[in-house]
Amino acid sequence: MSEFELDARRLLCPMPVIKTQDRIKGMNSGDQLTVTCTDPGVLEDIPAWCRINGHEVISSRQQDSEIHITIRVRNE
């Protein structure tokens, strides 16, 4: 398992989800990706995208104006 980070700050919907999708394409099953965003819409959008695509949201937290979402990749 490897851990990766994605900086999606200052991007508005749908760009954080698109950037997350693009980054996960090159990752292996079991890898973790932490996405840092400033758009509060990601609190619903990224978990919904993960459910549709079979990935797991491990944690979601907000620190000041930043949102950090950690995803466990599940590729078939």
Task: Explain what you see.
The protein is α+β, with helices and mostly antiparallel strands and 76 residues long. The chain has one domain: Translation Initiation Factor IF3 (2-Layer Sandwich), CATH 3.30.110. It has two helices and four strands; from the N terminus they run E-H-E-H-E-E. Strands 1-2-4-3 form a four-stranded mixed sheet, with helices on one face. A hairpin with a 2-residue loop joins strand 3 (56-63) and strand 4. The radius of gyration is 11 Å and the shape is globular.
The CATH superfamily is TusA-like domain
In total, how many domains does the architecture comprise?
A: 1
Derived structural class? alpha+beta
- Report the order of strands and helices: EHEHEE
Low-confidence stretches: none
Helical coverage, percent range = 25-40%
DSSP E strands, number: 4
| CATH first level | Alpha Beta
For the termini, the CA-CA separation is: 15 Å
Outline the fold blueprint.
Elements: E1 3-8, H1 15-25, E2 32-37, H2 42-53, E3 56-63, E4 66-72
Parallel strand pairs: 1-2
Antiparallel strand pairs: 2-4, 3-4
Please summarize what this structure is.
This protein is of the alpha+beta class and 76 residues long.
